[in-house]
Amino acid sequence: MMKKFAILLLLISVSFASYGQDADSLDRYAGLDSLLTHFYTTLERAETEEKNSEFDGLIEMCRDSLTRQHVTLAIFDHYSHSRVMGEEAVAIHIYDEWIKSGKVKTRSEFEDMEKEIFAEFNRNTLIGMTAPPIELIKPCGSRLTVPEKGSVGILFFYATDCMKCRLELAELPKILDNIPFKVNFYAINTSTDRRDWNAVRRNLKTKNREVAIKHLWDPEIDSDYQKLYGIIGTPRIFVVLDDGEIVGRRLELDNLQEIINYISIVYGKKEEK
């Protein structure tokens, strides 16, 4: 166990004692939350397994059930709302180990359902995992299972009535036109209006011969893409390598460009060898 963790445990254990004397105070956990924030920063560069181990130890040392509940839910909330790629895995671990197992109770049935939905809708597409295959429908009616191995894949889930999706669809050609390696770009429509879909298909184009744009949808959701990829809102962008490994999830366009730049560098090094 890290020395810095041991110091934090000492500080927190002292804090716990004082909280017990002032249980009715509105800011009962203010000091503890401040220490937790410091703890997140301390573990910022740690690997996921190390974070999980440290947080398990922290939760285990909580003597009373209310403090254990507060610490557990605070950690879950922090990592489930994190915009840092890969940190969702910590929230899912906390859910499985402490909440789903019944060791820690949530504050309400609604909160329990909310955390269950997050865990179940994110556990299949964590960074480093193999992207789950989904069978989608082409405009002609034939089917295609994506992502296809052998080429980098970008999965862009959008809805035709989503304003942010429209803005990103308008900006995407600027990114696609400059990708220097072969990519399958899967434009996956989550709406059900074919006329609106036709408009997107007419407008989303690229002059880049390295990029193959493939328009797909699944109006009946037979592929279960919503749960497999956690599509409870749009737009959603995922990037997978040619072997199917997920290297980007729930991306913004800026993040997408960063990952494209990274892959370009890696591919360039491979070609040099």
Any overview of this molecule?
By secondary structure, this protein is α/β, with parallel strands linked by helices. 49% of the residues lie in helices and 14% in strands. The chain has ten helices and seven strands. It has helices at 3-20, 30-42, 48-60, 65-80, 88-100, 109-120, 163-176, 194-203, 225-228, 253-272; strands at 134-137, 143-146, 152-158, 183-189, 211-217, 236-240, 246-248. Strands 5-4-3-6-7 form a five-stranded mixed sheet. A two-stranded antiparallel sheet has the order 1-2. Helix 4 (65-80) packs antiparallel against helix 5 (88-100). It is elongated and about 60 Å long.
Q: Give the SSE string.
A: HHHHHHEEEHEHEHEEH
Distance between the termini: 40 Å
What does the main sheet amount to? 5 strands, mixed
Report mean pLDDT, rounded to a whole number: 88
**What is the 3D form?**
elongated
Task: Provide the spatial order of strands within the biggest beta sheet.
Answer: 5-4-3-6-7
Number of H- or I-type helical stretches: 10
User: Rounded to an integer, what's the Rg over CA atoms?
Assistant: 22 Å
Indicate the structural class.
alpha/beta
Poorly predicted runs of 5 or more residues:
17-26
Q: Based on DSSP secondary structure assignment, what is the total number of beta strands? A: 7
Determine the strand fraction and express it as a percent band.
Answer: 5-15%
Portion of residues within helices: 40-55%
